[in-house]
Design brief:
Blueprint: H1 20-38, H2 42-63, H3 65-90, H4 100-106, H5 110-116, H6 126-145, H7 148-170, H8 175-203, H9 206-215, H10 237-251, H11 259-272, H12 276-292, H13 295-316, H14 322-330, H15 339-357, E1 368-370, E2 376-378, H16 384-411, H17 421-435, H18 445-487
Antiparallel strand pairs: 1-2
Helix pairs in contact: 1-2, 1-3, 2-3, 2-4, 3-4, 3-8, 3-9, 5-7, 6-7, 6-16, 7-18, 8-10, 8-11, 8-18, 10-11, 10-12, 10-17, 10-18, 11-13, 12-17, 15-16, 16-18, 17-18
């Protein structure tokens, strides 16, 4: 079988007007959102956005799963931005209820998980089974120790990445089409979110300033031009950085006419987030990606990196960007004086013993508390590993982290990454995200979608290539048998 880098799928998925019903549903949702915003009917949008997005997501999930994947990711990309506009026009909503839309649409994949979970073990699905059991245990403990509403919020954060990743994995026969939709989704996502992130830093749009003032989040910078830590269309700098890190690594492995502008605004906005943990994760992902490829592909990657640096370095050395980026890089050498590093160290010192000695765990949802107004507020646990033990206890954490580590072990056994650069990038992205767990809860919500989702794609790619190789071998055997019969 002749394997080449990024082998062309047998069925190419078009991003034109096919399938028309699927695109009609998506465009109807976009039109509904735009009309509500520009007509001033944002009060209607606050609830209507949830209902319409779920209806469109359900339709795409049942009829057009490839479009569903792209639609789901774009909900994660832009829903926080839409929410901030609604807050500016209709008053600040501290519950952030509109954000439930992206969780509901993603959790449609729970249907696939419940149907195929037992059968998936033969195809390498044990990591997802273990992770699901860990979250299920944590949910049961949460129901015992806190209210159902708080548990539901926690289950959304923990379960959505696992169910979505399982959906990508179990549909491995459609791997080429899923690979294509993810590549294009993230290329466009890097371009759009990166460009808005740069504009956000320079201009500080009124809806972003309003939201920052109302939430009183001091860690996200000053609500003024050139004073923000960029979070673009998403909810905060950390999840935005996680998505951008994944997209920027994918850009290194996929030729596209948007690569140059996406690279320029993508890396600039990524640096303006000032999220050092994800900067380091990007480097880890790059090293993993480079080591996964064969020599010829490594040389191509080096050329791409050099061209990328020629685009990025000049932009980071001009004002108003250079001062912000340089100051943040200088903190790497002065971590003992850095406030965020000291806070994180204190969290470890105070939380490590509590997390590791809490055998049963506090349960899913107990990292949230209800304030006097009845609004859910998170309890800060600035470490994914501590969060697992604190929330799931030893029993749940062993299953959840065990499933994650087993998945990592599996993807490092695959040799197909040598010729499939998307698989190599997926493996690199997954490892990069796991490296962030020491500094934040990168296995939850959209960051968890990146971690679990791309590791699942690496596993799906392996299953697909093995099946193709076996089919090719069987075809050769049939040809030999037929030739032998003819000669006989």
């Amino acid at each position: 079988m002749n394997h080449t880098l990024n082998t062309t799928p047998k069925k190419r998925f078009s991003f034109g007007l096919e399938p028309p019903l699927g695109w009609t549903a998506i465009l109807a949702f976009v039109l509904f959102t735009a009309v509500c915003i520009f007509s001033g009917a944002t009060a209607i949008l606050r609830n209507g956005y949830i209902a319409v997005s779920f209806a469109v997501g359900l339709f795409l999930y049942l009829r057009y799963p490839i479009l569903y994947i792209g639609f789901t990711w774009w909900l994660w990309f832009v829903t926080p931005f839409i929410t901030r506009i609604v807050d500016l026009r209709s008053g600040f909503d501290p519950s952030r209820f509109m954000l439930v839309s992206q969780f509901l649409v993603t959790l449609l994949t729970l249907h696939t998980l419940l149907i195929y979970l037992p059968k998936s073990l033969r195809q390498g699905g044990l990591p997802f089974v273990m992770a699901f059991l860990g979250v299920f245990y944590g949910a049961l403990i949460g129901l015992i120790k806190t209210s159902p509403m708080i548990v539901a919020r926690g289950v959304f954060a923990w379960l959505t990445p696992v169910t979505f990743a399982f959906f990508l994995f179990i549909k491995w026969r459609e791997y080429p089409q899923y690979r294509q939709v993810l590549q294009r989704t993230f290329i466009w996502g890097v371009l759009v979110m990166g460009a808005y992130g740069v504009w956000q830093f320079i201009v500080a749009p009124e809806w972003d300033v309003f939201w920052l003032v109302e939430t009183e989040l001091k860690s996200m910078g000053n609500p003024e031009p050139l004073g923000l830590r960029v979070w673009s269309t998403m909810a905060s700098p950390a999840p935005f950085s996680a998505v951008m890190m994944a997209g920027l690594l994918l850009l290194l492995t996929h030729a596209h006419y948007l690569n140059i502008p996406a690279t320029a605004v993508g890396y600039l906005s990524f640096l303006l987030t000032s999220v050092r943990t994800l900067w380091g994760a990007w480097l880890i992902g790059l090293v993993t990606l480079f080591g996964s490829l064969k020599a010829q592909s490594q040389m191509r990657l080096i050329v791409v990196i050099v061209l990328m640096m020629l685009c990025i370095v000049p932009l980071t050395t001009i004002e108003p960007f250079s001062e912000t980026i340089t100051q943040r890089f200088e903190t790497f050498g002065e971590l003992e004086k850095d406030d965020s590093a000291q806070v994180r160290q204190k969290i470890y010192e105070e939380g490590l013993n509590k997390a590791l000695t809490n055998g049963f765990g506090n349960g899913v949802g107990n990292t949230f508390t209800l304030n006097e107004q009845g609004i859910l507020e998170p309890i800060v646990i600035d470490s994914g590993f501590l969060d697992c033990f604190f929330t799931l206890g030893w029993f749940g954490a062993v299953f959840y982290l065990g499933g994650m580590l087993l998945l990592v072990y599996q993807v490092f056994q695959f040799t197909e990454c040598r010729f499939d650069s998307f698989m190599a990038a997926s493996r690199g992205i997954g490892i990069a995200m796991i490296s962030t767990l020491a500094g934040n809860s990168g296995m939850l919500e959209v960051a968890g979608m990146v971690l679990w989702g791309f590791l699942a794609m690496a596993l799906a790619g392996h299953n697909y290539h093995v099946h193709e190789q076996n089919s090719f071998n069987n075809y050769q055997l049939r040809v030999r048998d037929e030739e032998f019969e003819v000669r006989s």
